[in-house]
Amino acid sequence: MAKIHARAKLVENQRIDVDDQRTHAVCLDLEPPDGTDMGPSALELCLMSFVGCYATIFVLTTKKMRFSLKNLEVTAEAIKSPEVGTITEAKVDILVESDMPKHRIQRAHELTLEGCPIGILFERAQVKIKYNLRTDSSPTTCDNADKIGKIKM
Question: pTM for this one?
C-alpha cells in the first residue's frame, strides 16, 4: 500500500498553502470578499486534479496501447449543489487528436475511466459525470450514470 502525504498551512486570511511534503506546493484562496483570489479554492483544485488525473491516465494508457497523441485537452464544468454543499454533477469535454481509429481512442477512454483514481473517487461520491469525447471530427457522449445507478444528465 503506497502512502501519499499532504500538508496545509495558513498564510493569512483565507490563503492556505498546501504541499505534498516533497517539493510541490499550491496556494489556495477564496474569491473576495472572503479571500484575495491568490489561487483556486480547494474545491476548484479538486476539479482541476480530476481533469489532470484523467489526462495523465489517458496518456499512460495510449502509450501502453502504442499510439501517439498529437493533442489532448480535457476541460470540466461542475455543479456545486447548495443542498449538498459539494460537487454533484460534472461535464467533461475531452479533445483527442491522433491518427488512431476512433474505436481505439474510445477504448483508451474506457480504460482511463477504470484507472483514474480521482475519477473513481468522484464515482464513489455519486457525482454524475457526463463525458464528451471528441476526436478530430465527431463527438461521442457517454457518462458514468449507469455505473452508479443515476439518471443520465
Answer: 0.87
